Amino acid sequence: MSINPNKLSETAILTFDENFNVFSYWNGKAGTWDTGYPWTVANGGTNEGNGELQWYINANYAPTAGLGTYSANNGIMNITAAPTSAAAKSYINGYDYTSGMITTFHSFSQTYGYFEMRAKLPAGQGLWPAFWLLPTDQSWPPEIDVMEVIGSAPNTLETTVHYDSNGHKMDNKSATVQGMTTGFHTYGVDWERDKITWYYDGQNVHETATPVGLDKPMYMLANLAVGGSWPGAPDNSTNFPATLEIDYIRAYKEGEAAPTQSGPVLIPAPIPTGQKLFSLPASAASKKTINGTYGWDNLKGTSGHNRIDGKEGRDTMKGLGGDDTYIVESRGDKVVESANGGIDTVRTDLASYKLTAHVENLILTGKGDQAGIGNELNNRITSNGVGDNTLSGGAGNDILFAGRYADVLAGGPGSDQFVFKNAPVRAGHVTDFTVGVDVLDLRGLLADYQGENPVADGRLSFSDNGSGDTIVKARSATGTVSTITTLDKVTTNQLHANADYFWA
User: Fold this and answer.
1) What phi and psi, each to the nearest 5 degrees, are found at residue 72?
2) How many CB atoms lie within 10 A of CB 288?
3) Which of 337, 336, 326, 331 is nearest to 292 (CA)?
C-alpha cells in the first residue's frame, strides 16, 4: 500500500520527526545530525567528484565552529553558505566557500517509506540545495534525490534515482513549479519495493519503478552546495550569505496511524545494519634493503618495495613509489612519503610514535609499553603483544590489532575495527566505541566456534560493570573464561550481532 502524503495519519507511522527547536549535532557519542559525510576528516570535507567549491563545516571542529554555518532559530534550521574569510582558509584546505550538510548517518536509517522535508530554498547562480538518501553501507549507487534545485533555475525541481552497481544509470525528471525560493514547500518521496514516487506540496511530480539494488537501509542528507560541474560557479549576481531554511524533516513507514511526537524521535530505535568487516592492505614484501650507518644518514629508496633501516643516529628516510617499510629506532628519525606512494609501514620500538603524512601502517615492536598514533589516513596499527599499549587511530577508518595485555584502543573519528585474535593475559579498554559505526572483530578469538550464536551458546558474553560500560568475555572450547576488553560508555543492549561484533 502506498503512503499518501496528504493523509499521513491514515496511511503511515511516524518513525523520525525533527522540528529543529534545537540543533542536536553528533558529537562522536550522541546527537541527531552529522555535519558531513561519514568519510570526511576532522576539519570537514567536500564532494570533489562533483567539482564543488565549498567546504562542508564540521560542527565539532573548534577553529570553524563559530562561522555561523549552522543555527536553529524559532524552529527553523539554517544552513548558510558564505565566502571564506582569509583567516579561515587555512583550516578548510583553502576552499573559497563554506557551507553545511546535515545527515542522519549515526542516528536514523530506514528501508522503504516516505521521507519529507519542508524548506525554503536560496536562489542564486552557483547554489545547489538538496535533500537526498544514501545507503548506510556507504556503497554507491544507489542514491535517491528527493529534491535538487540549482539556484540559477529556481523554478525547476529535479527528482532522481541513481542505480546499477555495475555502472551508473539514473532516472530523472525535471518539474516546473513556482515559489521554491520565496516560501516554504514540502518535498517528499515514497520509496516502495516496486515503485518510487516523488511529491511537491503533496502533488505527484515523478514516478518510476524501483530499480534493482534499492533494498537496503538508507539515511537522510540535506545540504547546500556551492559550485560544481552542474550549477557552475557563483558570480557577481550571487547574494551571500545564502541560506537553506528547513522547517522540518520527517520519515514514515507504512501503517494505519502515526503517533504525535515532539522533538527528534526514532521509532523504533533502528538496529544497526550498515556496518561490516573491512580490510586494509599491508605493505608488500620488501625487494631491497637499504641500511644506514651509526651516523645521521639521508636514505632514499627506489621505485620498488624497500626496507629502509636508518640504524643509529637521526636519519631521514624517504621512499618513492613502492610499498616501503621503515625501521624507526631514534626519536630524531624522519620518515618522508608522498601521496600515492604505495602502502607504507613504520616498525618502531620507540615508547611513542605518531605516523607522519602519507604513511598508512604502524607496527609496534618494543618489549614494553608503547603508544602508537595514526594520522588522517585509513591506518592499520598493531600492538607489540607484550606490553600495555595505547593505540589511537586518528581520523580515518582504522583497524587496531590488540595484543595480549591491557591495550587501550581509541579509533577516533571514522568507522573503526578493533581486532582481538587471542584472549589477553589482562584486558584493556576501547575508549570510544561508537555503536552503529565501529565493529569488534572476534574471528580469531572464536576461530574454532562452528555454531550460529556464540552468546546463546555461552562462548561470548556482554555484561554491565555497574558504571555504564560493557565487559566483553569469551569462553574457550576447554571452558576457560577470559575478559577480552571493556567498551567504555557502551551499554549491553546497544550491541547487535553481525552489526557491532562479528565472529565469522
Assistant:
1) -115, 115
2) 13
3) 326
DSSP secondary-structure letter at 41? B
Whole-angstrom distance, CA of residue 338 vs CA of residue 497: 40
Strands (E) across 344-398 are located at 345-348, 352-354, 361-364, 371-373, 380-382, 390-392
pLDDT number for residue 247: 98
Report for 145-154, 157-166, 474-483: range of highest mean pLDDT = 145-154
Cis peptide before 38 (omega within 30 of 0): no
Between these two residues, 149 and 26, which has the higher pLDDT value?
A: 149
Please state, in angstroms and rounded to a whole number, the distance separating the CA atoms of residues 347 and 368. Answer: 15
The model carries a pTM of 0.55
Q: Which member of 116, 143, 158, 337 is catalytic?
A: 143
Residue type, 329: E
Report how far residue 24's alpha carbon sits from residue 31's, in angstroms, rounded to the nearest whole number: 5
Catalytic residue among 18, 52, 116, 148: 148
Instruction: Note whether 18 and 219 are within 8 A (CB).
Output: no
Q: In 293-322, which positions are buried (b, 16+ CB within 10 angstroms) versus exposed (e)?
A: eeeebebebeebbbbbbbbeeebbbbbeeb
Which grid cell sits at 82? 558564505
Alpha-carbon gap, residue 322 to 305, rounded angstroms: 5
Is 143 an active-site residue? yes
The pLDDT score that the predictor gives to residue 260 is: 42
Of residues 382 and 436, more confidence is placed in: 382
- CATH number of 8-254: 3.40.630.30, 2.60.120.200, 3.10.580.10, 1.10.390.10? 2.60.120.200
Grid cell, residue 12, equals 503511515
Given a contact cutoff of 8 angstroms between Cβ atoms, the answer to whether 211 and 161 are in contact is: yes
Q: What is the DSSP letter of 67?
A: G
Q: Which three cell numbers stand for residue 104?
A: 542522519
What residue spans define the domains of the chain? 8-254, 288-502
Tell me the C-alpha distance between 483 and 164, whole Å: 45
Cα–Cα distance, 371 to 339 (Å, whole number)? 25
Q: CA–CA separation, 225 vs 128, rounded Å?
A: 5
Tell me how far apart the alpha carbons of residues 291 and 312 are, in angstroms, rounded to a whole number.
Answer: 10
456 C-beta neighbours (distance < 10 Å), count: 10
Measured distance CA(232)–CA(128) in Å, rounded: 9
Half-sphere exposure of 84 toward its Cβ, with a 13 Å CA cutoff? Answer: 22
CATH architecture observed for domain 288-502 = 2 Solenoid (2.150)
Q: What integer is the mean pLDDT of 187-213? A: 97
32 Cβ neighbours under 8 A, 6+ residues apart: 18, 24, 25, 26, 104, 107, 108, 264
Q: Which of 25-39, 325-339, 405-419 has the lowest mean pLDDT?
A: 25-39
Can you tell me the mean pLDDT for 327-335? 90
Residue type, 172: N
First-residue to last-residue Cα distance in the chain: 38
Instruction: Determine the Cα–Cα distance for residues 444 and 421; give it in Å rounded to an integer.
Output: 4
